[in-house]
Amino acid sequence: MSTSSGAHGGSVTMRDVAKAAGVSVATVSHVVNDKAGARIGEDTRLRVQEAVAALGYRPNALAKTLSQGTSRFIGLVTDQVATTPFAGQIIHGAQDEAWKHGYVLLVANTDGNEAVEGDAIAMMLEHQVHGILYSTWYHREIAVPEALHQTDTVLVDCFASESGLPSVVPDEVQGGRTATQELLAAGHRRIAFINTTTPSPAQSGRLAGYRSALEEAGIAFDEALVVPASPEQEGGYDATAAILASGATAVFCHNDRVAMGLYDGLRDQGLRIPDDIAVIGFDNQEVIAAHLRPPLSTVALPHYELGATGVRVLLGMESAPTSGPLLIACPSIRRESV
């Protein structure tokens, strides 16, 4: 039987509501669960609803789930999204979109532990969640946990080519093109690109976007302007000498951490941004980009929209392509470094 804590203390049961409204427990159940086809007069329905409000009764959501085979829960299983402020907007976007449509988000952060991940998915399946979003904190291909095939699943910020599961990922090519176009629009023609040495969709996609923007502007691609670097501050700092030797007047950095390191390297050489050389980053890690001097122009990873779109795809409100991921645009964030 369903129970809850009433406004006046103690447990309020469906029987309490029935007594207050002068009806049967079955009638209360039909009204509370909005049972289709139940013949209940409007006066009776109103009395039950008034009793529910007066007593502070709440249906037991889990009991309702088990009896109806459905729930208003959506699961979100992540590796490190919840503990990474940079990617935490995925949860924010998914949660907002779930609430908008009457669902509650159940979040499990596994820290990449396979045993914890398996337990989390099993728990969500036991609670008969409407479906599961499976997300990683950076865009990559994954091996799908077998249990995810037992319910509707959408991959967020990751993909699995042969799984048949819909996925929602950032448009890395468009993002790389947008970053380069920002530098072209500022009048630069010799533009360097500091790219990561780590194979990933970001590494190949952003390079493809860079090349595409140059081609559209009628500028020949120069391999010497692509500088490999580790994807952190030290990588950007270490790339400074190669950037200066290239004669570039502007630099597109693989991410904001690389840009932060390049800032330090250029400052050590007595150069000013953007007066002597323009810099644009990628990711929009605001704790970095907004607080550098000058503030860093960058291209944002659309984490909030990835989460929100994942929920819409899961609920059937938006379609994902059958031949590949649904691509979400990466917007330009203009500050003062270009």
UniProtKB/TrEMBL annotation:
GO terms for molecular function: DNA-binding transcription factor activity; transcription cis-regulatory region binding. It comes from the Bacteria. Residues 12-68 form the HTH lacI-type domain. InterPro entries: HTH_LacI (IPR000843), Lambda_DNA-bd_dom_sf (IPR010982), Peripla_BP/Lac1_sug-bd_dom (IPR001761), Peripla_BP_I (IPR028082). Keywords: DNA-binding, Repressor, Transcription, Transcription regulation. This is LacI family transcriptional regulator. It comes from Microbacterium natoriense.
